[in-house]
């Protein structure tokens, strides 16, 4: 395995964590991503860990994680992920508010408009 050759490669750990996330090995994903975070891939690792929480249905924990990411308020992808998790957790009024804020801030992304339509 590549990690045996280069166990301190933050990018490789991030990729490994993403693979584990996609195949449902959530604890292994979080372990790899936390290691990647400690080696300098903080922003990507934190976001991917939040994705894991969302995939597990722990939307509140996912949103807390997303909000902890430096620069989250200015990042359209993170704000959209928060809005999506609000919708998934059936907090429709809050999701609608966040999607509308994205549009009002000029981020008419491929998720903001459909997100509004799904509420």
Number of strands: 0
Low-confidence stretches: none
DSSP helical segment count: 8
Give the ordered list of helices and strands: HHHHHHHH
Helix content: over 70%
Structural class: mainly alpha
Shape: elongated
Overall pLDDT level: 91
Which range does the strand content fall in?
Answer: under 5%
Q: Any idea what the radius of gyration is?
A: 15 Å
Overall description:
By secondary structure, this protein is mainly alpha-helical. It is 72% helix and 0% strand. It has 8 helices and no strands. It has helices at residues 2-5, 10-22, 26-38, 42-55, 59-68, 76-88, 92-104, 112-117. The longest helix has 14 residues, at 42-55. The radius of gyration is 15 Å and the shape is elongated. The termini are far apart. The model has no long low-confidence stretch (mean pLDDT 91).
């Amino acid at each position: 395995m590549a990690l045996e050759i280069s166990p301190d490669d933050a990018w490789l750990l991030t990729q490994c964590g993403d693979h584990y996330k996609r195949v449902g090995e959530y604890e292994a994903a979080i372990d790899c991503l936390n290691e990647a975070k400690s080696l300098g891939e903080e922003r990507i690792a934190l976001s991917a860990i939040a994705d894991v929480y969302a995939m597990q249905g722990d939307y509140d924990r996912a949103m807390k994680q997303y909000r902890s990411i430096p620069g989250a308020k200015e990042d359209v992808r993170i704000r959209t992920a928060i809005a999506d998790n609000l919708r998934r957790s059936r907090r429709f009024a809050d999701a609608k508010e966040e999607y509308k804020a994205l549009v009002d801030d000029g981020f008419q992304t491929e998720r903001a408009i459909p997100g509004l339509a799904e509420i």
